[in-house]
Amino acid sequence: MMAPDSALPPELGLAFEESREPMLVLDPPADRIIDANPAAADLLGYPRPTLRGMPASTLHPGQRPALIVFTQAVDAKGHWWTHALSPRHGSGKALRLEYAGSLLKSAAPLMLVTLADLDARRRRHVDAQADAHMRAGLSEWQRMERIFRDIERENQLILRAAGEGIYGVNAEGVTTFVNPAAERMLGWPAAELVGRDMHATVHHTHPDGAHYPHRDCPIYAAFRDGAVHQVDTEVFWRRDGHAFPVEYTSTPIRDRGQLLGAVIVFRDVGPRREADERLRQALAEVDVLRERLELENAYLKEEIRLESHHQGIIGRSPAIEATLRQIDVVAGTDATVLVTGESGTGKELIARAIHEASRRCDRPLIRVNCAAVPRELFESEFFGHAKGAFTGAVRDRVGRFELADGGTLFLDEVGEIPLDLQGKLLRVLQERSFERVGEERTRAVDVRMIAATNRDLRDEVRRGRFREDLYFRLNVFPIAASPLRERPEDIALIAQHFLRGAARRLNIAEPRLTEGDVRRLSRYPWPGNVRELENVIERGAILAVRGRLHLDLPEIDPPPQGLDVVAIASPILNPLTEPERRARDRAEIEGALGLAGGKVFGPGGAAELLGLRPTTLASRMKALNIDGRAFRVRR
User: Fold this and answer.
1) What is the distance in angstroms between the CA of the first residue and the CA of the last residue of the chain?
2) Tell me: the pLDDT tens digits for 367-396?
3) Would you give the distance in Å from CA 464 to the centre of its chain?
4) Are 314 and 324 spatial neighbours (Cβ–Cβ below 8 Å)?
5) Which residues lie below 8 Å from residue 416, measured CB to CB, with a gap of 6+?
6) Eight-class DSSP state of 336
7) pLDDT single digits (tens) 277-290
8) How far is Cα 590 from Cα 630, in angstroms, rounded to an integer?
9) Do 464 and 557 sit in the same domain of this protein?
């Protein structure tokens, strides 16, 4: 192994050893200090043998990136300097140095780094300035005096230009100076105020005219207790005897710890208070107008609501009429509603109609598609989360329950909620409170619940895929959305409505809907219900030729031989089985009994809710083995 001295480039020679400038020789690729001269060893606080061979990064803990940037700059430019490196002294303290590096071309990639102590350089600069002042003698002192005179003159100009009134008092409360703005506001010339007791001159009386003793004056308190006093409820008195409201700050003046007086900055706030009063009166008028507009708006909204009653629910079939009666009955309550039916039957329209007819119509209807919520985000989606609750929670998030507070929460496809998450939903429905994910604060919520599903939740309960207690909590008032095949008399009305909307969206003339079109539409079973009908009508409008609707319906099986064609055109191609019909009737009757608290007859009874004669309802309850007393106990 070569001795350290033999590894040095020959051009360094005696100059490196004898230089009073601290120097290091670095080998950047090897991260090694090749050598350090005695001046560098003294500056860095390490013995020279310790520095030889020491990794350069060890001398600069935590500064490897800055060290690499510096050495690469030296290598690229031939020489470079930086203040970004702070080597660690042998005693442990960090040094403030300037590094100046040069590439040793005959011994690349070695480089020579000169170190300069920035603190020592600053001290030398200060000493040099002091020495220059001392050598300048009398002329320099005269120059400094002129500088101070200029500063004093500038201060006086600032005082004169200031828009606020400014005056000073000594420790006895005697005025020492007054600026022009204070002269204008007080009506006194400065010459008559200086030397006088300022409180007795302009601050001697409260706004109501009562005497204001010196001992209570906050201005004088400033040079007694040494604190800054701010006041905005008092008045100053002008020379002509009129008072004006002011806000002022009294700041103590100290010299070597001794309180000498105070400086007072004040402004006339009368114009501002007059403007505030005018603004208050204007806001009061705005409040009156806003209240009037709100009443007018409420009236107009009620008129619109009456005009567009159950807007979106189209049809005149008995099934639709029954649904609209149920909506009218339940809308005025806060009862939970469970809307059942096949996909595309308009369950969301029923939910919106209930919300619009309820007392919560001024608050939002928040819809949640339960089938689209990932399992891991269920709680966050429904209840919200706090910032940092989990990875990716970069800010607080408001959940759907909180958004729907005071309004209605519509849970679409509620049967899709995983079984292990149904208990959390049930707890919120029962307690009307929840906690955000990652937050311990309990939040109360006032939400009306409407749920919808295309599943048979009774069957789901039997199969263990849906909680029975949650089913009973949701199934307070069931409404069944009838499929389109069970109400063929509505098809023409709905098709005409969709055709009008499609023509408007496509910006085309509205095609004709002929009697033949209606017969074709009525013969089709519509497995996709109203949603499928809308798509067929829009496609027919796009393909219309010379105003003639082009209906592209899937082929249906031909009638069995010998069967009357009229039977095929019958609107109900897939009638309910008897068990299915009994199950639907049972659900509707139980829902009405639950809402009526087990009351069958009389006002508010289940018979009135269902639009049935009491005797008819009693007969159906007996046939279905339904006991109304059970609902009284449950309630």
Assistant:
1) 97
2) 888 888 888 788 888 888 887 777 767 677
3) 40
4) no
5) 370, 371
6) -
7) 899 888 888 877 77
8) 10
9) no
- Cα 502 from Cα 511, distance rounded (Å): 10
pLDDT band at residue 311 under the 50/70/90 scheme: low
Radius of gyration of the chain (CA): 45
Strand order in the sheet with 477-480: 365-369, 408-412, 448-453, 337-340, 477-480
Provide mean pLDDT across the span 565-578: 47
Residue 410: alpha-carbon gap to chain centroid:
23
Same-domain pairing of 474 and 596: no
Is the pLDDT reported for residue 572 higher than 50? Answer: no
Average pLDDT across the chain, whole number: 82
- Name the domain count of the chain: 5
**Residue 524 belongs to domain with CATH number:** 1.10.8.60
Amino acid (one-letter) located at 86: S
348 and 435 fall within a common domain: yes
Q: Among positive and negative, which fits the CA dihedral 71, 72, 73, 75?
A: positive
398 and 364 assigned to the same domain = yes
Against a cut of 0.70, is the pTM above it? no
pLDDT, mean of residues 64-69 = 91
Q: Is it the case that residue 568 has pLDDT exceeding 60?
A: no
CB count within 10 Å of CB 537 equals: 26
Mean pLDDT across the stretch 69-87?
91
pLDDT classification of 295: cutoffs 50, 70, 90: low
610 contacts 582 by C-beta, under 8 angstroms? no
What is the share, in percent, of the chain residues with pLDDT greater than 90?
23
Residues 466 and 496 in one domain: no
102: how many CB neighbours lie within 10 A of its CB?
15
Helix axes 491-506, 529-542, angle to 10 degrees: 50
| Buried/exposed code over 41-78 (b: 16+ C-beta within 10 A; e: otherwise) | bebbebeeeebbebebeebbeebeeebeebbeebbeee
115 pLDDT exceeds 90? yes
Angle between helices 138-161 and 118-136 (to 10 degrees): 100
Task: Tell me, letter by letter, the H, E, C secondary structure of 179-194.
Answer: CHHHHHHHCCCHHHHC
Residue appearing with tokens 């919300």: 355
